[in-house]
From TrEMBL:
It comes from Paracoccus nototheniae. Catalyzes the oxidation of glucose 6-phosphate to 6-phosphogluconolactone. The keyword Membrane does not apply. Pathway: Carbohydrate degradation; pentose phosphate pathway; D-ribulose 5-phosphate from D-glucose 6-phosphate (oxidative stage): step 1/3. Keywords: Carbohydrate metabolism, Glucose metabolism, NADP, Oxidoreductase. NADP(+) binds at R51, K147. The active site is at H239. This is Glucose-6-phosphate 1-dehydrogenase.
């Protein structure tokens, strides 16, 4: 199977914070890969904007080094030589007037205009105000904003209000790279394009759902920053919330940005408050590597791990629990969604052949793909012995060589911005609803003054998280890569 490349229109993309880590690791390499794939014309322009004083040639050299580092491209690559002339640079004072007229002179009439805010949220308002005030942005312009979208409901509302002063909601693209993953989008295809699954996608047939995002790295080197957020703000409120919504949402009337986001919003508003006994927080510990040292605060109560049981109050999911867990310094790096179906109501086999429940596992990383566990007869003579086997589909293998080189999430999402497609981006009311559900959880924890449960680096998390499942006669899936 050969993946198709659908070209986008000619564009001018301005990257604020173009000398930063995200631009180097993801944005510039992603744009180069899309150029190499032939997805946008060589007339397009990519303009870096940051405080550093440098000219176009210096920025092109900086971009070339980043692209070579993060894509493995040779510095003498012919496609790289064609790509670099598309890049320009303007030194910008985000809080002042320096550089804005020069930026305006670089923007070409007739091209799609997009502005990527790869900067701290504190600068969003300043940049938005100057883009509007200097007449650089217009009614068809798009802005891309990175998380965090606030740190609570009040700050999220303030941020939305700031952006709304200068841009309409249909111009604002709140990017969550998890939604750009091939597997996440395939989750919608599996549900809504196959009659096999959708009739079973409800509390009558689904026993429970597990969502796991596990990391092997700690927070060393950025501990003071991470300590201000923690696992709930960093992962649950945004990435895991989006995955939960895609699993639990009702079929939209059409694959349309607002239709999809309307259904996601209904899921968030149907979430029950989390009971204190249904959440576990932890901090990693270990010889030479513990959270308190990495966070540079021996009294920190910020969690590096969180597990919780979530319930959805609607007809489809009443009675089916969703278990979420995420953490640093765990056994393996993996992100997956596991839908465990209920066991058959009656077994016709003897005790040696009791069927196990079917399970659909959706792997986001590593090795994106899907795995459906079914029961079959174990080969050979000697009676009816059942064994559970996976029907495995790795996207890299199933789609062949072309599929193995699938676009990175940022590549796909940036191209969607140029197309004007907001389906995989969060809407303002969606962000606020997520914070409205998350804030009471965080506030209750802060009021309790409890210290997070310790867990060993390289483990599966705190023992309390295991008990969270055991009391429901269930078990977490093993964390493995």
């Amino acid at each position: 199977m050969v993946s198709r490349v659908i070209p986008v229109d000619d564009f001018d993309l301005v990257i604020f914070g173009a000398t930063g880590d995200l631009a180097h690791r993801k944005i510039l390499p992603g744009l180069f890969r899309r150029f190499k794939a032939g997805q946008f014309p060589a007339t397009s322009r990519i303009i870096g904007a940051a405080r550093t004083e440098q000219d176009d040639a210096a920025f092109q050299a900086e971009a070339a080094a980043a692209i070579c580092d993060y894509t493995g491209t040779d510095k003498n690559d012919a496609d790289l030589a064609e790509f670099l002339p598309l890049l320009g640079y303007v030194a910008i004072d985000a809080k002042g007037e320096g550089g804005w007229q020069e930026l305006k002179s670089r923007m070409r009439p007739g091209a799609v205009h997009a502005f990527y805010f790869s900067v701290a949220p504190a600068l969003f308002g300043d940049i938005a105000e100057r883009l509007a005030g200097h007449g650089i942005a217009h009614d068809d312009s798009r802005i891309v904003v990175e998380k965090p979208f606030g740190r609570d409901l009040a700050s999220a509302r303030a941020l939305n209000a700031t952006l709304a002063k200068h841009f309409h909601e249909d111009q604002i693209y709140r990017i969550d790279h998890y939604l750009g993953k091939e597997t996440v989008q395939n989750l919608m295809a599996v549900r809504f394009a196959n009659v096999l699954f959708e009739p079973l996608w409800n509390a009558q047939y689904v026993d429970h759902v597990q969502i796991t995002v596990a990391e092997t790295v700690g927070v060393a080197g950025r501990g003071s920053y991470y300590d201000k957020s923690g696992a709930i703000r960093d992962m649950v409120q945004n990435h895991m919330m989006q995955l939960l919504c895609l699993i639990a949402m009702e079929p939209p009337y059409h694959f349309d940005p607002d239709a999809v986001r309307d259904e996601k919003l209904k899921v968030i508003r149907a979430l029950q408050p989390v009971e204190p006994g249904d959440i576990v927080r932890g901090q990693y510990q270990g010889e030479g590597s513990d959270y308190l040292t990495d966070a540079e605060d021996p009294a920190s109560r910020t969690e590096s791990y969180v597990a919780m049981k979530v319930r959805i109050s609607n007809w489809r999911w009443q009675g089916t629990p969703f278990y979420l867990r995420t953490g640093k310094k765990l056994r393996a790096r993996t992100s997956e969604i596991a839908i465990t179906f209920k066991a058959p109501p009656h077994s016709i086999f003897d005790d040696s052949g009791v069927p196990k429940a079917n399970e659909l596992v959706i792997r986001l990383q590593p090795n994106e793909g899907m795995n459906l566990k079914v029961m079959i007869k174990e080969p050979g003579p000697g009676g009816m012995r059942l064994v559970q086997v996976p029907l495995d589909m790795s996207f890299a293998e199933a789609l062949g060589a072309e599929g193995a080189d699938m676009p990175d999430a940022y590549e796909r999402l940036i191209m969607d911005v140029i197309r004007g497609n907001q389906t995989l981006f969060m809407r303002g009311d969606e962000v606020e609803a997520a914070w409205a559900w998350t804030d009471p959880i965080i506030n209750a924890w802060e009021d309790s003054k409890r210290q997070p449960e310790p867990y060993d680096s390289g483990s599966s998390g705190p023992d309390e998280a295991l008990r969270l499942m055991h009391r429901d006669n269930r078990r977490w899936r093993e964390i493995r890569s």
